[in-house]
């Protein structure tokens, strides 16, 4: 299947590990030149070197070590390159906890990272995409947007706000100009984020890692956790010409765990 992405350019956030890395890798394999962004330079540099090894059709892989959730970080990124054909937004999910313990600062940090930052990035790139007649924006959100998880209230709230925003802007005049915007909602994938949630559950319940993983897999019809490369492949497809008729959608990848019809 030819995704016709050769020669395109992409900005991928949170790209040093996990699902962000998988998206950067999948795009580079399709001949997309990728600018990878994450906070830790040592980890990011190593990740960029690995992605460069699998890049095809002369695609280049560069990186900027910055906190994309800050204005300073965004300025650093766009000082390197202003225009992109593809934007993949991604920020680490807020920590789990009891909502009774969260103050305004806690909420604002979650909203900044998981709602406002994607919106700010979209604002910066979308008009250029529309002017060129092609754009793909993928927001990595969470399966909790469809099925909220009580201890992930910060994520439930902030990411749902982003989802509402995208529902409107994806159907605005940019759609007729070749720009699509979709959200990718991961369920339980075998990433550092899953390990972090598992450690929190171990502390809260006293159960072993094996017991927690076994119980979680039992609630997933495919009886396993997702693999990052599967997520990356879906991201690359949504960025392709073949997905030009898909916009404003929340695409859930959770192994069938969500029980609803819609």
UniProtKB/TrEMBL annotation:
Gene3D superfamilies, A to Z: NAD(P)-binding Rossmann-like Domain
Stored Pfam families: adh_short_C2
InterPro entries named among the record's database cross-references: NAD(P)-bd_dom_sf, SDR, SDR_fam
Homology family: Belongs to the short-chain dehydrogenases/reductases (SDR) family.
Protein name stated in the entry: SDR family oxidoreductase
Organism from which the protein derives: Vitreoscilla stercoraria
